[in-house]
Amino acid sequence: MNKPTRLIEWIVWGGLALVIVAIFGAYVASNLGRNHRPTLPVLSRVSDFALTNQFGRVVSLADLRDHVWVADIIFTRCPGPCPKMTRQMSELQAALSANEPVQLISLTADPEFDTPEILKRYGEAHGAAADRWYFLTGKKTDVYRLATKGLLQVLDEVKPEQRESEDDLFVHSTKFLVVDKQGRIRASFDGAEPSSVPKILEAIRVLLREKQS
Questions:
Q1: pLDDT by residue (tens digit) across 123-154?
Q2: Strands 133-136 and 102-108, sheet pairing
Q3: Running DSSP on this structure, what letter comes out for residue 174?
Q4: Which of 118, 71, 114, 117 is nearest to 92 (CA)?
Q5: What is the pTM of this model?
């Protein structure tokens, strides 16, 4: 074999080797990127519930399946953190696309006062979209069961003799909980922070990309 022919062969084989290396490198990079996507731990599973929303319709855990949802605890007479948390939930609603399977859930700490009618007015005052943001009420035992047993959050009524003011009615969590499509709590964010919305949105995006198992 003469030298020019051998040189051509080396060039061809060298080119093929470079192509193979490039393809393999792209494959590895793709898998590394896929394997290093952010994931969220499973913190707990929400137990079943059936409560009433601001339109008088019953909402259960089954109704939220196949949706990522964000929950918080507020009450309409709350002078403390609730207005700030509701504003953040409103910001979150505005940041979501209309076609994203995401539900917002605000559970009242004051079900004996916060009837569906009162919650409907409260929701309208804060721009709540009827098909996106539910305000839930019901029997006190059922509401408190969801809050403390299902969502694992603090919720308790302050006894009259322990109240420091007439507005000191309830002790409740100020967390935003992000729940996946299978009803599992995957993230928790402090509503007392200046704005939890970007972090909540990031968690929602992670869960929307997940494949159900």
A1: 999 999 999 999 999 999 999 999 999 999 99
A2: parallel
A3: -
A4: 71
A5: 0.80
Question: How many Cβ atoms are within 10 Å of 24's Cβ, its own excluded?
Answer: 10
Residue 50: what are its φ and ψ, rounded to 5°? Answer: -145, 110
Cα separations in angstroms, 174 against 168, 190, 192, 200: 15, 6, 7, 14
**Environment class of 34 (CB within 10 Å of its CB; exposed 0-12, middle 13-18, buried 19+):** exposed
8 A C-beta contact, residue 51 and residue 146: yes
Q: pLDDT (tens digit, 9 = 90+) per residue, 74-103?
A: 999 998 899 999 999 999 999 999 999 999
| Beta carbons of 195 and 91 less than 8 angstroms apart | yes
Please indicate whether residue 157 or residue 17 has the higher confidence score (pLDDT). Answer: 157
Residue with tokens 């490198």: 25
The Cα–Cα gap between 133 and 148 comes to 21
The amino acid at 114: D
Asked if 98 and 130 count as a contact pair (C-beta separation under 8 A), the reply is no
